[in-house]
Specification:
Layout: H1 12-16, H2 24-33, H3 40-50, H4 73-79, H5 89-99, H6 106-115, H7 119-132, H8 139-145, E1 164-166, E2 169-170, E3 173-174, E4 178-180
Antiparallel strand pairs: 1-4, 2-3
Helix pairs in contact: 3-4, 3-5, 4-5, 6-8, 7-8
């Protein structure tokens, strides 16, 4: 297949039936990373893995720039959920693990979610956390502070089971341990 025959990957916005907006966070990420828009998602994932979302560790392209500490964890987590990025559920899952930490500022996260119009995606993660780890912050605070501007198509977002570690079948039978993925600190 030739390059011109390949279809561009749909964005998260297209998968959710939404439109994008002018994103100050995306502009900041592009300036800090120096990446082209097509490489931003991969760079953000690399940064998230480096900051503790190690469940999504893999080999990244050597030409990706190093992470930039000027980007806060809250900004990084929200940036992974931007509607502008090509649709990749792993970005959303990495955001959930990265943001599931004691030092995540819930107020800042709520503000960024509304500003960047990704509150529906983050509330989806918060809803999944409510099923598995109902007291997990910042998700409790996010559910209390934020409402979605519109209903999000959850069929395009990761199932709650993709945000957790679960025991499967073992020689002793079926395991019942489910643990919400949190950032390695």
């Amino acid at each position: 297949m030739e390059l011109r025959d390949q279809r561009p990957r749909p964005t998260l916005a297209q998968k959710l039936g939404d439109v994008t907006h002018v994103s100050p966070l995306l502009r900041k990420v592009r300036e800090l990373s120096g990446c082209a828009e097509n490489d931003v998602g991969e760079w953000l994932l690399k940064c998230a893995v480096g900051r503790g979302a190690t469940h999504y560790c893999r080999d990244f392209a050597p030409e990706l720039p190093p992470e930039n500490p000027s980007l806060t964890n809250e900004e990084l987590g929200v940036a992974l959920c931007l509607a502008h990025l090509p649709f990749d559920p792993m970005l959303i899952r990495a955001a959930a693990q990265l943001l599931s930490a004691r030092d995540t500022n819930a107020k800042t996260l709520a503000h960024l979610a509304v500003m960047e119009r990704c509150e529906g995606v983050l509330l989806h993660i918060a809803g999944a956390a409510a099923q598995v780890a109902p007291a997990q912050e910042p998700w409790v605070s996010l559910r209390a502070q934020v409402t979605s501007r519109r209903r999000v198509r959850t069929d395009a977002l990761p199932h709650w089971s993709r945000f957790v570690l679960q025991t499967g079948y073992t020689p002793a039978g079926r395991g019942h341990h489910i643990q919400w993925l949190t950032r390695d600190e």
